[in-house]
Amino acid sequence: MNTSTEPTGPNGRVGELLQRITQDVKTIARDEVELVREELKESARNASIDAVIAILGAMVGLIGMGMLCATAVVALAPVIPALWLRLLLMSLIYLVSGGAVATAFGVKLKHDAVPRLGVARYESKRTVAGIQETLVQKEHSSHA
């Protein structure tokens, strides 16, 4: 009769422990994937909200710039008699201003579209380190 507390078969304590560790690792991996998925959703949501705000702001700004341009064309009549030259001058100012605004918002949207995975990366590293530490402790306790 075997009175040893050390299991020898696959149904022993070591087998059960390995099964539990495997299940725990699967659960942890699933949770980590879910965390990354949620962070990607949040990043996409923030980028889309910023894009909508930028588009609405650009539309209002465009209307304001058009009105300002028309006012400037009329106001420049005593200085520049040719209507075509006043319109050309204001069109160039309009194009440069629009390009600068579009570039600034493009840079901001590009920066906001990058997912922030710092928390997920940190948690994954901690999880792996914890699993390794647990396995090392179990290995040392089984040799003792």
Tell me what you see in this structure.
By secondary structure, this protein is an all-alpha fold. It has a domain at 26-117. It is built from 3 helices and no strands. Helix 1 (13-75) runs antiparallel to helix 2 and helix 1 packs antiparallel against helix 3 (118-143). The protein is rod-shaped.
Helix/strand class: mainly alpha
> Distance between termini?
23 Å
Number of helices: 3
Mean pLDDT level: 81
Spans with pLDDT under 50 lasting ≥5 residues?
Answer: 1-7
Portion in beta strands: under 5%
Q: How many beta-strand elements?
A: 0
Key terms:
single chain, 144 residues, disordered N terminus
What's the layout of helices and strands?
Blueprint: H1 13-75, H2 83-112, H3 118-143
Short note summarizing the structure:
Helix content is 83%, strand content 0%.
